[in-house]
Amino acid sequence: MKQPSAKLATQIEEWIAALPTGGLSNWVLNVCKEEQMLPLHSTSIYIWALRPDGQVLCMDHEAFSHPIDEETDPKTIFAVLNQGARDYPELSVLIPQAPSGMRQCERCSGVGWLKPPEATSADACIRCDGMGWYTSI
Questions:
Q1: CA-to-CA distance for 103 and 106, rounded, in angstroms?
Q2: pLDDT in tens, 24-47
Q3: Are 46 and 59 in contact, with CB atoms under 8 Å apart?
Q4: Is 104 within 8 Å of 110 (Cβ atoms)?
Q5: What sections of 22-113 are H helices per DSSP?
Q6: What is this structure's pTM?
Q7: How many Å apart are CA 65 and CA 100, to the nearest integer?
Q8: Can you tell me the distance from the alpha carbon of 125 to that of 114, in angstroms, rounded to the nearest whole number?
Q9: What are residue 83's phi and psi, to 5 degrees?
């Protein structure tokens, strides 16, 4: 895990402080703010977030207790930080070297979801399991 510089850590804290938390629909962002973590990517079950110290966390937002654990899978950390850098380009310095065989998903262009024409919502990409990246070996 790469450590953010003091300047980047402060910027992450500012992004966390600016999370919109009003209303019931923002309950996940409320949890992120309370736990001092910046949401980076999510699937239908999990949300991954970054602490100002560079630690990547995973929260099961479907479980009753919403457990939050440190993410340890290098492939997931790589994919999540890549996703986060789409919204927060400054985070690109934290992206580790790609694990062997990692490829950006061609089917979803690396975003992790697909929105069929005329659809009102998007579905997770099956090829990359909603992560935007997959292992080709």
A1: 8
A2: 778 888 889 999 999 999 887 899
A3: yes
A4: yes
A5: 27-34, 74-87
A6: 0.85
A7: 35
A8: 6
A9: -65, -45
